[in-house]
Design brief:
The chain has one domain: ph1033 like domains (ph1033 like fold), CATH 3.10.590.10. β4 and β5 form a beta hairpin. The chain has four helices and eight strands. It is of the alpha+beta class and 177 residues long. The structure holds a DNA duplex (12 and 12 nucleotides).
Amino acid sequence: MPKLKKSSNVDPKQLVSSTGNYWLLKSEPMVFSIDDLIKAPRQVTCWDGVRNYQARNILRDQMQVGDLALFHHSNAKPPAVVGVVQIARAGYPDHTAFDPENDHYDAKSHRAEPTWYMVDVKFVLKFAVPLSIQDLKQLPGLKKMMLLQRGSRLSVQPVRPAEFAVIVQAGCLVQHS
DNA sequence: GCCAACGTTGGC
DNA sequence: GCCAACGTTGGC
């Protein structure tokens, strides 16, 4: 059993959303990973390409600047929560829907009345070790977490404050060598 | 590769 | 509006 200590440069107790909102954002790491975000200019990116109405409603209506979100690598081996980001800009039209060259083009979305929205996210931290779904199932208090429900597909999900706290605490532990 | 759990499409 | 067929997501 390896000893664990807290990472020196991150205090998970400081990771509290001023807005009280917490989310989880899924991304396939082959498409866009947390390392891509770390390398992005100013470590900010627009969260484009969401084409699901339930997720769109969250992006457009609920996310606020300052909200914190877990960054989840979906379709990965293994799928895992890998870090934390902060909402840097609230919902605005997803312009990739207007671009016929874009993979996420949607001919039915128009600039005057956009169908799809996105937010900007800023990198906050990368966990010392990815927390796989198997890892998460071992943690206390996550039985009802949306990500862990069977068949849960929503790519933008609400996360309860207690769930966020448990996951960030676990993610900020690093192993002694 | 399988399949659960949706979401979308389109005939009626 | 109903619903069967099909498509997608994403864990397993």
